[in-house]
Each structure stands twice: as structure tokens, then as C-alpha cells.
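Support case: guanosine-5'-triphosphate complex. Customer-provided input:
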Amino acid sequence: MSTRIVEVRAGVLKKNDELARDLRRRFEAAGTFVVNLVSSPGAGKTTFLQKTLEALRARHLRVAALVGDLETDNDARRLADSGAPVQQINTHGRCHLEAEMIGAFLEPWSLPEIDYLFIENVGNLVCPASYDLGEAWRVALLSVTEGEDKPLKYPTMFNSADVAVITKVDLATACDFDQPAACAAIQRVRPGMRIIEVSAKRGTGMEAWFSALDERRSAWQRERVPAPSIGAA
Ligand SMILES: Nc1nc2c(ncn2[C@@H]2O[C@H](COP(=O)(O)OP(=O)(O)OP(=O)(O)O)[C@@H](O)[C@H]2O)c(=O)[nH]1
Ligand SMILES: [Mg+2]
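Agent response - structure generated as follows:
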């Protein structure tokens, strides 16, 4: 790779990091807990997110979602069935979402009125790993149909995530899924990472996911820098 290409790429990432840092401050000030879902194409992000939005709304939590794809608004339409406000971001060729896109799409929303903002990234196990979106929690999904060694082949994605979710466990037997091997692969690239196993279709494991989400948000609320109160010196 030429020096010039490396320089341009480093510049793009630096700019993204700065924008992501600003976004993170905005999310913290507003009290909006942001979750970035990353995975290979078709691992089950939209199905999992739709069930999550429905469950959180049923618990009277205020949720919203941004979803990235190269083209189509298919996923936004599916997610909107949950009743949550949803916007589709089409990247037109880019294989990941960037902080600038998130900032632009937040415009119509009032962040203090959103408890959870979910971002479904473009399905890709490489590029989204390098782009911070200002999220508080990055969740890497791995479906049982993909092969247990994916974390070893795409270590940056799993290494940069905070939690791993193994999806479509209802298909595990049919796929001869080797659960211990998949968990060992995740632990090898990210020792100690929490792993949650779910079938969004059947509902299996979803309560454990909701508990983990609630637990993490509560910890984040305790850790975040509170917004300065009006009139404070
Ligand atoms: N059996 C089974 N199928 C699932 C499950 N979750 C998702 N699927 C199926 O897997 C396929 C892909 O699911 P999506 O939710 O669209 O996956 P995605 O990761 O959002 O896909 P992209 O956004 O295109 O990357 C669909 O046919 C879903 O019905 C599950 O828990 N069990
Ligand atoms: Mg999707």
C-alpha cells in the first residue's frame, strides 16, 4: 500500500474519531444510551433488533433506531413495525457507517427524549470495526450458520466489541454448530468477553440479552459525566 493511501486513510479515521467523540459527549449529556450492532451480512441484526425494540417499548422505554445499508430501506421498514422511530441510512457503496452520517441523521430527533438509540451497522465484518460512532456499547453478532472460526478470521471486529451475541441458536443442531469452539474463538480474540446466545425467532435467550442491556445502561448512567445544570458556575 502506498504511503499516500495510508495517509488519507489515517486522516479519515482521525476525523471520524473526533466527530465520534463529540457525538459521545452529546449522547452522555442527553442521557441517550447508544448501542452499535455489527456483524456479517445476514447474521440476524434486524430480526434481533426488531424484537429488542418491541420488548423495550412494551416496558415503556423510549427507543429509536438508525439502520445502515448500501441500498434499500427494507430494514428500516421492518424495524418500524415495532412502532419505534427509525431512519434508514443508505451508504451507496460504503461498507460501514461513519460518525458524520450518524450526526446528520440525528437532526430530526430530540436526544433527551430517547433512552436507547440502536444503530444497526452495514453487514460487514471488516470496515465497521474501525469506525467509532460514539456508541456506549458495541455488540458483535455471530450466527451459528457462519462458522465457529469467524472471530479468529476477523479479530478486529470481535476485539473492538464489548459483548458477543451468538444468534439463530434454533439452527445450531442443523448446522452442527460447535458452541464450545465458537466461544473459545471469541475468548481468544477478546478474553473475558461476555457471550449471550439467542434465537430472536424463537425468543430463546432474549431475556438474558434484555437483562445485560439494562445492566450495562445502568452502569453507564452511573459512570457518565452529568450535563451541567442550568445556573451552575
Ligand atoms: N432460524 C432463524 N433465522 C433467523 C433468526 N434471526 C434471523 N433469521 C433469519 O436470517 C435472515 C437474515 O436476518 P436479518 O435479520 O435480515 O439479518 P441482518 O443481519 O439484519 O442482515 P443485513 O442487514 O442484510 O446484514 C432472515 O431470513 C431471518 O429471518 C433466528 O433467530 N433464527
Ligand atoms: Mg439488517
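The helical segments are 3-30, 45-58, 74-80, 99-106, 150-153, 155-159, 179-189, 206-223.

Case will auto-close in a few days if no follow-up is received.
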